[in-house]
UniProtKB/TrEMBL annotation:
The keyword DNA damage applies. One of its GO terms (biological process) is mismatch repair. This is DNA mismatch repair protein MutL. Residues 211-329 form the DNA mismatch repair protein S5 domain. It comes from Diaphorobacter nitroreducens. This protein is involved in the repair of mismatches in DNA. It is required for dam-dependent methyl-directed DNA mismatch repair. May act as a 'molecular matchmaker', a protein that promotes the formation of a stable complex between two or more DNA-binding proteins in an ATP-dependent manner without itself being part of a final effector complex. One of its GO terms (cellular component) is mismatch repair complex. Belongs to the DNA mismatch repair MutL/HexB family. The chain holds residues 23 to 355 of 657 of the full protein.
Length: 333
């Protein structure tokens, strides 16, 4: 069982950044408005993700860790299925199987927080305000083969920052901070109040601010706004002009319904637009947000959840291509 869950964990957790992504995902799911990530040694020695979300009730702390491990072991008949079954609800269990994990959490109803040590199972009262801290220590300590594949701390740190950056670019209503070895390395403040998230104008304004904070003021200067609605698909964001690539080569951020994705349909559509308008600009920088009826997209095709499958990829391709073409071809002030 231990072995199977460790192999399964490998599908979810390849490096510290994958754990960071899952933990930040959970914090966002819990309605956090401020998320702080603390790292030691590029996340290998410690990843602590702290949020002010709903918290996990005391009696559910052990369940959060175990819940899916149980169904996984009864359902897993061969290793093949590890890659195909999907990993919804398995992140905490998977990370816990390859690290020393502790959960510290408090709900609004509780008089105190509780701390669960995943390894010993010990549960005891502790102190913190409402929300959750997930602490992951010594990632891959029990799987030295995997630990060997990790790069330098600086490289792992860069990947961790990138993982948070991807979340941050989609959530201007949430503040993010990243600390490494006790030093604040990134901080992006929330510029959208929870009450204003439904106001599309304010959302777009906050998103521009977040793009500026995360990708730099120079990216805003060297990019053009994207906005197009084509049929069931809405595309917004910013497309970088050739100058933008100088400071920030080859950074492409695509979101589908608020979730960061890597998708060939989207990147191909954007690349085609750049080729048409700027005649083969090779390394464009852009952040594109695609909104589409959830029924027309499947986001669960890969355990890491960054791949999607569109029901009608032509419709999405067209919308993105036209959106970026229009943006790049529009006269500039
Ligand atoms: P999933 O997020 O897909 O449900 P996870 O293994 O990532 O699976 O998390 C298991 C459960 O633990 C979640 O469903 C949630 O109930 C709880 N949980 C994890 N992290 C947090 C958090 N930061 N705040 C509140 N609840 C959390
Ligand atoms: Mg999760």
């Amino acid at each position: 069982d231990e072995l199977i869950s460790q192999i399964a964990a490998g599908e979810v957790v390849e490096r510290p950044a994958s754990a960071v992504r899952e933990l930040v995902d959970n914090a966002l799911d819990a309605g956090a408005t401020q998320i702080t990530v603390r790292l030691l040694a590029g996340g290998v020695r410690l990843i602590a993700v702290e949020d002010d979300g709903s918290g996990i009730p005391q009696d559910e702390l052990p369940v959060a860790l175990r819940r899916h491990a149980t169904s996984k072991i009864t359902n897993l008949h061969d290793l093949e299925s590890v890659a195909t079954m999907g990993f919804r609800g398995e992140a905490l269990a998977a990370i816990a199987s390859v690290s020393e994990m502790a959960l510290l959490s408090r709900t609004a109803q509780q008089a105190s927080a509780f701390l669960l040590d995943a390894r010993s199972g010990e549960l005891r009262p502790a102190a913190r305000s409402r929300g959750t801290t997930v602490e992951v220590k010594e990632l891959f300590f029990s799987t030295p083969a995997r630990r060997k594949f990790l790069k330098t701390d600086a490289t792992e740190l860069a990947h961790c920052i990138e993982a948070v950056r991807r979340h941050a670019l989609a959530r201007p209503d949430v503040g993010f901070a990243i600390w490494h070895e006790g030093k604040l390395v990134e901080q992006w403040r929330a510029t959208l109040t929870p009450a204003a998230t439904a106001d599309e104008g304010k959302r777009q304004q906050a998103l521009q601010q977040r793009l500026s904070d995360v990708l730099g003021e120079d990216f805003i200067r060297d990019s053009v706004p994207v906005h197009l609605r084509l049929g069931a698909v809405t595309v917004t964001g910013r497309a970088g002009l050739p100058d933008a690539a100088r400071s920030r080569a080859d950074q492409q951020f695509c979101y589908v319904n608020g979730r960061f994705v890597r998708d060939k349909v989207l990147t191909h559509a954007a690349r085609s637009a750049y080729e048409d308008v700027l005649h083969g600009h090779k390394q464009p920088v852009y952040a594109l947000y695609v909104q589409i009826d959830p029924q027309r997209v499947d986001v669960n095709v890969h355990p890491t959840k960054i791949e999607v499958r569109f029901r009608d990829s032509r419709e999405v391709h067209q919308a993105v291509r036209h959106a970026v073409e229009n943006a790049l071809a529009a006269p500039r002030a």
